[in-house]
Amino acid sequence: MAEGVGAVSRVGPRGAVGGYLRAVGAIVWKDIAAELRSRELLGSMLVFALLVILIFNFALELDLRTRQTVTSGVLWVTFAFAGTLGLNRSMAIEKDRGCLDGLLLAPVDRSAIFFGKVLSNLLFMIIVETIILPLYSLLYNVNLFHPGLIAVILLGSIGYVVVGTLLSAMAVQARTRDILLPILLFPVVLPVLVAAVRATTGVLQGLPLEDYQAWLNLLIAYDVIFLGVAIVSFDYVVEE
Amino acid sequence: MLLQEAPAETFSFMAFGFIVILGTMGLYLLSLINRYRNLEQDMELLDELSAKVEPSVEST
Amino acid sequence: MEAAPRNLKILTGITIGLFVLALYMVFIYAPREAVMGDVQRVFYFHVASGWVGAVAFLVTAIAGGVYLAKRDRKWDRVAVASVEIGVVFTFINIASGSIWARPIWNTWWTWDPRLVTATIMLLLYVAYLMLRQGIDDPDRRARFGSVYGIVAFVSVPITFVSIRIFRTIHPVIIGSGDPAAEGAFDMTPRMLQAFMFSLLTFTFIYATLLWYRIRLGRLSEEVEERKMEMMSV
């Protein structure tokens, strides 16, 4: 049954690739439209991120000297925490409103659903990051505007969101879904956080590229490997 | 490390280490046995219950 | 459930025999290490436990893949049985290593790549068990378990590499390690024999426990099914 549906979409009249991309786009657009209406996802992620930074401020006493060494760590912990909030909420909405079941009935390949969710989660994550970075920079008077930082943040966020989307699709179907996602996600994305923090530190301290190239390579390898794993296994997570 | 002639006296740490190793293995074994017994009890209980239920099922 | 099959009884007997022999080799046959003293004897079972943990999680990933391909619940029972044993032995590995490290490195804990990776691995598979506990539908539980078992297994080497880029002080006993690593030692032939024998013994312990744990899983499923039947009557 499921394979038949997939096959139809692949040989659709307007070409398989076009139909596939339209399906991905439709999911992303649906998420953006829903967010524009409710604003609950970005709102909570942003407020939460600010609170985390605030707590760090008092927990670590971010004076000038500590700031230089811990900035990247504080930023990535903030992104990771805010990220789980967003991932959980985004999948829980799908589940509760029955969107997931609706999407599964639609004649599209399952991986299109996955890519759609990954893209919209990535979009929300990047929006939060682009608001938090200048804000952090303003609050602590550190210059965070380096072109290299964009690459690091993008690579780190992709890895985080790819794994996060897959695992949140499982977590929301569990009884213990509110507490499960971070427990499932953090041990798996640890390499992303380690590499992203080190690479961010390298960029912010203006080190030559060779000094943190290894971390960038690790991020790229992680992204590629887990994109592959997630695409293959997402089918099994959403099938009913 | 270079000028040591006798081995360090670390017997107590060895003892502690093996208590943890063998103790953990023993605890796991006990947990397996315990779970197995509980399941067997459940099974017996289910057997008894179904023995009571079955005649009435057949008569209907 | 029927009594243990003959092969399992034989396997159990062999394992117990091997274990007694291994204890003999570790405590009496192997000489006391010249620098570290008695605590070095922990090393044999420490490494063997780590080996069992790694093998167990590999088996889980493979069994998960086979389950997803064939949808035979039998493979899921193998996967979850293996995770449980892997968690127990990874814990033994970390705890015994920590006890060894106290007199040798003068600290219970360091942020060495292997220690951290082992700990992350433990957390990953505890998360695996928690994921399964949160799902009631057995088919979904098996599917999610398989997926997470594979994801977790893939992430372990990457975690190791990521932490490896920091400097390590963990001694590498097998192969050409850094000779300056604190606590490294050369194995005498007798030590090597005791070490290899411990590896063999723990592999047998793993196989035996796995078999019993799979049977436990099957019995537990039978009980569940009977309960459901009773409720529907």
> Gyration radius of chain C, to the nearest Å?
20 Å
One letter per element, helices H and strands E, the order of chain C comes to: HHHHHH
> CA-to-CA gap between the ends of chain C?
23 Å
Counting DSSP E segments of at least 2 residues, the number of strands of chain C comes to 0
Q: Could you report the average pLDDT of chain C, rounded to the nearest whole number?
A: 89
What is the multimeric organization of the chains shown? heterotrimer
Taking the sheet with the most strands of chain C, its summary is: none
**Average pLDDT, all residues of chain B:** 83
Task: Count helical runs of chain C.
Answer: 6
Any idea what the shape of chain B is?
rod-shaped
Number of helices of chain B: 1
Structural class estimated from helices and strands of chain B: mainly alpha
Please outline the helices and strands.
The complex is a heterotrimer of chains A (240), B (60) and C (233).
Chain A: H1 2-10, H2 16-38, H3 40-60, H4 64-96, H5 99-105, H6 110-140, H7 147-171, H8 177-204, H9 209-238
Helix pairs in contact in A: 2-6, 3-4, 3-6, 4-6, 4-7, 4-8, 6-7, 6-9, 7-8, 7-9, 8-9
Chain B: H1 11-59
Chain C: H1 6-29, H2 42-70, H3 73-104, H4 113-133, H5 138-164, H6 189-232
Helix pairs in contact in C: 1-6, 2-3, 2-5, 2-6, 3-4, 3-5, 3-6, 4-5
Structure commentary:
The complex is a heterotrimer of chains A (240), B (60) and C (233). In chain A, 86% of the residues lie in helices and 0% in strands. With 240 residues, chain A is mainly α. In chain A, helix 3 crosses helix 6 (110-140) and helix 6 crosses helix 7 (147-171). Chain B is mainly alpha-helical. Helix content of chain B is 82%, strand content 0%. The radius of gyration of chain B is 27 Å and the shape is rod-shaped. Chain B starts with 10 loop residues before the first helix and ends with a helix. Chain C is mainly α. Chain C has a domain at 55-170. Chain C is built from 6 helices and no strands. Chain C has helices at residues 6-29, 42-70, 73-104, 113-133, 138-164, 189-232. Chain C is globular and about 70 Å long. The two termini of chain C are 23 Å apart. Chain B binds chain C through residues 1, 4, 7-11, 13-14, 16-18, 20-21, 24-25, 28, 32, 35-36, 39-40, 42-43, 46, 49-50, 53, 57, and chain C through 1, 32-42, 45-46, 49, 85, 88, 91-92, 95-96, 99-100, 102-103, 205, 209, 212-213, 216, 219-220, 222-223, 226-227, 230, 233.
